[in-house]
């Protein structure tokens, strides 16, 4: 029994898939043997083993046939004259690009020179300075002046000097458009004679922000003590405005004003702007050394305690080395700072930031966790009294001996332990009060005197 798989076909298939030819021959032989076995079984009636399926290469042969048909179809399409012409055109384009790439720089330079030459020729008829002056004044009046004046007036209003408005006066001088910023004042006098220093600073900040806004860029901006001479109310407006600007671009601010720093942090939190604080200090290696930590006055209670611990270690070293004068001076400074830490802990932990120095407003919702007992009063009073006894120059006068480093550490740990206890109690108090209904004594406030 044959499959008509002639030698020529076998040779062609072998070049593509040699194992397929061998498998086909094996199948052909197995098929012939099965045919003979069936004929013998008809006579003997013994059909044992004839029900086993043979492994057929039919699917593989069909897949090869489909592949060869697809290739033949592709070759038929390639013989199409229109397709051949399109391919020839594409080849010519690619060949031209290769040749152009070899002289690209020379061609680009020549095109640029020719373009520049053409522009210069077009400009020959427009070199009259009065025409340039007229067009510059027109553009400044219609575009630059109006946009800048509007931007300035918006900034002045945001910074608390909205009672002032600005207009731009423009003139041309031999092709140059000159612009002058002019404040509309009630009297014919210079701004420096009428405006306060704070108003002048606000105008300067507003002018800068207006120009930055019109530039269209997103580059960072830097301010050096932007509120050094502003009043309290305008300082808050500047903080709010700079925080809003920080949403759009990086804003770097140098300031000595802790209150302004706290305002910036609060306003930035309101608008969702990220805040990174650093301090510049003087060290042995020089001035302006960047420190990721804030000065002591800007730290919270926990970080103040950490700074005091580090200072106590330095004082202990001075004491051990016998440097009594510096040891005494540093101890006095440490107790001054310890008193500041007690004050911060009272605001931050005991009163839960209901009222916080350097922050505007009173957050009455935080009262939910406030709880003050007699022991708090006693510990705060004792800690503050001892700090006041040694802080400033008291210990340097009248022969008052300063505590040794071990006693200083005990006093620092007393504050730390009290802070931890009060914080834990405050959290429990807040949780308990939030779980139950609020209690009011006759609509008033109950005061207990001990």
UniProtKB/TrEMBL annotation:
<protein>
    <recommendedName>
        <fullName>Protein CR006 P-loop domain-containing protein</fullName>
    </recommendedName>
</protein>
<dbReference type="Pfam" id="PF13166">
    <property type="entry name" value="AAA_13"/>
</dbReference>
<feature type="region of interest" description="Disordered">
    <location>
        <begin position="426"/>
        <end position="450"/>
    </location>
</feature>
<keyword id="KW-0175">Coiled coil</keyword>
<dbReference type="GO" id="GO:0000731">
    <property type="term" value="P:DNA synthesis involved in DNA repair"/>
</dbReference>
<feature type="coiled-coil region">
    <location>
        <begin position="58"/>
        <end position="97"/>
    </location>
</feature>
<dbReference type="InterPro" id="IPR027417">
    <property type="entry name" value="P-loop_NTPase"/>
</dbReference>
<feature type="domain" description="Protein CR006 P-loop">
    <location>
        <begin position="24"/>
        <end position="269"/>
    </location>
</feature>
<dbReference type="InterPro" id="IPR026866">
    <property type="entry name" value="CR006_AAA"/>
</dbReference>
<feature type="compositionally biased region" description="Gly residues">
    <location>
        <begin position="441"/>
        <end position="450"/>
    </location>
</feature>
<dbReference type="GO" id="GO:0006302">
    <property type="term" value="P:double-strand break repair"/>
</dbReference>
């Amino acid at each position: 029994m044959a499959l008509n798989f002639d030698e020529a076909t076998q040779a062609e298939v072998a070049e593509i898939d040699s194992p397929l030819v061998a498998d086909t021959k094996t199948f052909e032989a197995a098929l012939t043997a099965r045919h003979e076995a069936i004929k013998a079984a008809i006579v003997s009636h013994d059909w044992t083993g004839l029900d086993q399926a043979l492994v057929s290469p039919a699917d593989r042969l069909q897949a090869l046939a489909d592949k060869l048909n697809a290739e033949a179809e592709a070759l038929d399409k390639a013989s199409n004259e229109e397709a051949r012409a399109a391919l020839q055109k594409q080849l010519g384009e690619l060949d031209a690009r290769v040749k152009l790439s070899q002289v690209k720089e020379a061609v680009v330079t020549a095109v640029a020179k020719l373009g520049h030459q053409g522009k210069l020729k077009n400009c020959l008829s427009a070199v009259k300075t009065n025409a340039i002056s007229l067009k510059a004044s027109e553009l400044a009046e219609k575009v630059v002046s109006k946009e800048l004046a509007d931007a300035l007036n918006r900034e002045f209003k945001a910074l608390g000097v909205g009672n002032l408005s600005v207009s731009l006066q423009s003139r041309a001088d031999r092709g140059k458009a000159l612009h002058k910023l002019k404040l509309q004042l009630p009297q014919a006098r210079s701004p420096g004679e009428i405006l306060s220093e704070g108003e002048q600073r606000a105008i300067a900040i507003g002018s800068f922000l207006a120009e930055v806004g019109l530039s269209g860029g997103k580059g960072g901006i830097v301010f050096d003590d932007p509120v050094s001479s502003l009043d309290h109310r305008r300082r808050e407006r500047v903080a709010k405005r700079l925080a809003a600007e920080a949403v759009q671009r990086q804003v770097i601010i140098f300031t000595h004003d802790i209150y302004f720093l706290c305002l910036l942090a609060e306003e930035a939190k309101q608008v969702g702007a990220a805040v990174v604080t650093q301090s510049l200090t003087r060290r042995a290696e020089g001035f302006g050394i960047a420190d990721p930590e804030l000065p002591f006055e800007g730290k919270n209670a926990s970080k103040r305690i950490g700074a005091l611990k580090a200072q106590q270690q330095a004082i202990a070293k001075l004491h051990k080395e016998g440097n009594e004068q510096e040891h005494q001076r540093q101890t006095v400074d440490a107790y001054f700072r310890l008193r500041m830490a007690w004050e911060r802990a009272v605001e931050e932990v005991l009163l839960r930031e209901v009222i916080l120095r350097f922050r505007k407003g009173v957050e009455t919702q935080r009262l939910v966790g406030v709880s003050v007992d007699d022991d708090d009063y006693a510990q705060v009073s004792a800690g503050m009294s001892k700090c006041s006894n040694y802080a400033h120059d008291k210990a340097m006068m009248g022969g008052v001996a300063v505590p040794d480093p071990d006693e200083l550490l005990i006093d620092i740990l007393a504050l730390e332990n009290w802070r931890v206890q009060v914080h834990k109690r405050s959290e429990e108090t807040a949780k308990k009060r939030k779980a139950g209904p609020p209690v009011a004594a006759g609509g008033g406030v109950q005061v207990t005197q001990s």
